[in-house]
């Protein structure tokens, strides 16, 4: 990006994690009725993931439900605009597979097979790449694959701000 163009606002990792969690919970709830059949649940998880994180984001200026709730969007680093369908497929396809594997691992955990937690490694590794990134936007592995970044935007619901205000109000009322 040129120094003449103002840099878009970066988004803290906790907000990114919050948006990811919101989207993951939505998709997981949609696939919950299929939890008896692991393969079918995996397939439908990916279908719903693609609908929410690719199709919706493509039509909604780079915002999924979670990103809209927390005022952020995905941007293509080369053109500083909403990524194309192919870039979103590369980015979200990889993340969707990592997430589905992690959820299946968590679903199968018992006291006797804690080694199943190894299925969390791809998702954790993806996040660790962002923690180790020294760039301004802390790109995860799937961001790098899709050549995208997450930026803040005024367009959204501001859920994090509303929750913070509500908690502050509750805290004030408790002190009285």
Molecular structure report:
- The chain is mainly α.
- 59% of the residues lie in helices and 6% in strands.
- A two-stranded antiparallel sheet has the order 1-2.
- The chain is globular, with a radius of gyration of 18 Å.
- The termini are far apart.
- The model has no long low-confidence stretch (mean pLDDT 91).
Rg over CA atoms: 18 Å
> Which outline best applies?
globular
Would you list the SSEs in sequence order as H and E? HHHEHHHEH
N-to-C CA distance: 51 Å
Unreliable spans are none
Please describe the biggest sheet, giving its number of strands, its sense, and whether it closes into a barrel.
2 strands, antiparallel
Count of helix runs: 7
β-strand amount: 5-15%
| Mean model confidence by pLDDT | 91
Total E-strand runs: 2
Strand order of the largest sheet: 1-2
What is the percent of helical residues? 55-70%
User: What structural class should be given to the helix and strand makeup?
Assistant: mainly alpha
Write a brief caption for the model.
The protein is mainly α and 176 residues long. The chain is 59% helix and 6% strand. The longest helix has 23 residues, at 85-107.
List the helices and strands and how they pair.
Layout: H1 13-31, H2 38-59, H3 65-69, E1 72-76, H4 85-107, H5 121-132, H6 141-146, E2 148-152, H7 159-175
Antiparallel strand pairs: 1-2
Helix pairs in contact: 1-2, 2-4, 4-5
Primary descriptors:
6% strand; two-stranded antiparallel ribbon; mainly alpha; 59% helix; 176 residues; single chain
């Amino acid at each position: 990006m040129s120094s003449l163009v103002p840099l878009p606002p970066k988004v803290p990792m906790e907000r990114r994690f919050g948006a990811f969690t919101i989207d993951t919970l939505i998709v997981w709830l949609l696939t919950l009725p299929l939890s008896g059949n692991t393969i079918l649940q995996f397939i439908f998880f990916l279908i719903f993931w693609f609908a929410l994180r690719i199709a919706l984001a493509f039509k909604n200026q780079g915002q999924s439900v979670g990103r809209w709730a927390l005022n952020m969007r995905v941007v293509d680093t080369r053109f500083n605009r909403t990524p194309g369908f192919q870039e979103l497929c590369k980015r979200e396809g990889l993340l969707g597979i990592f997430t589905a594997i992690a959820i299946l691992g968590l679903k199968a955990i018992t006291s006797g097979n804690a080694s199943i937690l190894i299925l969390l490694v791809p998702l954790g590794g993806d996040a660790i790449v962002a923690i180790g990134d020294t760039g301004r936007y802390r790109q995860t592995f799937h961001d790098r694959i899709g050549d995208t970044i997450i930026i803040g935007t005024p367009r959204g619901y501001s859920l994090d701000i509303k929750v913070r205000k509500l908690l502050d109000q509750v805290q004030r009322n408790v002190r009285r």
